[in-house]
Design a protein that fits this description.
Number of strands: 0
Largest sheet: none
Helix content: over 70%
Number of helices: 5
Strand content: under 5%
Order of helices and strands: HHHHH
Shape: rod-shaped
Distance between the termini: 26 Å
Radius of gyration: 53 Å
Length: 263
């Protein structure tokens, strides 16, 4: 085979060399096109990752805004609860005062009732004493006196009943305010728990996309190293060719495409 290759005409060898160079150039062109397509896909993927990262950042900012709004609502609820507790305490103090007043009225009523019973028990004695002591001018004056006592008793009973009604109303309002405050605080705590869950999910998505971005950057670095190796191989081939053919090297070191054209 060596003798057969040596026996080839120079023009034939030149054609073979040209065909070999054309094949190499075609393969390099195919590799360049494939590399360009990969770089375009990588750029598109990087742009998608950038958009997704911005979207996740927007979501995180929205969640933070939601948390701030929820904190403000919670502060307002706590402030209203404090005010409500103060009002409840004031109502409790008023209810205690009314209860004491009612107790005093009941004791006074009982005292009047005991006095009335004692007067009824000693009615005969009072009638006998009426003539002896002269406290009342007549029986009518005595009846008027007992009528006044009866009206006083009825007024005290009515006032005691009104006090009982006010006490019951105050207790009902106190219970209603406590239930409303408890329900509002429970709703606020549930909303905060939901927002914290969504925030944690958003953080997980951000970490996942940051990992994808790191892998993409690593792949881009590997591709860049591969491009450098290809350029170095083309430069070596160019230098060997120009040295072998003894032609001037008037192409820049970084102009890889011109070096390929020369080869």
């Amino acid at each position: 085979p060596a003798q057969g290759a040596a026996a080839l005409l120079p023009s034939t060898r030149m054609l073979l060399k040209r065909r070999e160079v054309a094949e190499v150039e075609q393969e390099l062109q195919s590799q360049r096109e494939e590399f360009r397509q990969r770089m375009e896909r990588l750029a598109q993927r990087r742009e998608q990752l950038t958009r997704r990262e911005q979207q996740h950042r927007d979501v995180v900012l929205q969640f933070e805004a939601f948390l701030e709004a929820a904190a403000a609502r919670r502060d307002r609820a706590e402030r209203r609860a404090g005010e409500e507790r103060a009002r409840v305490a004031a109502r409790g103090a008023e209810a205690a005062r009314l209860h004491r007043e009612l107790s005093g009225l009941l004791r006074h009523r009982e005292s009047l009732a005991r006095r009335l019973r004692s007067l009824c028990r000693f009615g005969d004695y009072l009638r006998d004493a009426l003539a002896t002591l002269g406290q009342f001018q007549d029986v009518l004056a005595m009846l008027v006196h007992f009528g006044v006592l009866a009206r006083a008793r009825a007024a005290l009973a009515q006032e005691a009943e009104a006090g009982q009604a006010r006490l019951a109303q105050g207790r009902a309002q106190l219970q209603q305010y406590q239930e409303e405050t408890s329900a509002e605080l429970l709703g606020t705590n549930n909303e905060l728990a939901q927002l914290n869950t969504r925030l944690q999910a958003a953080h997980q998505d951000v970490l996942q996309w940051e990992s994808c971005w790191a892998r993409a950057q690593s792949t881009a670095t590997q591709k860049t190293l591969l491009v450098g190796q290809i350029k170095l191989a083309v430069l070596n081939l160019f230098q060997l060719s120009t040295a072998s053919l003894k032609i001037p090297m008037d192409v820049a070191m970084e102009d890889t495409e011109a070096q390929l054209d020369m080869v």
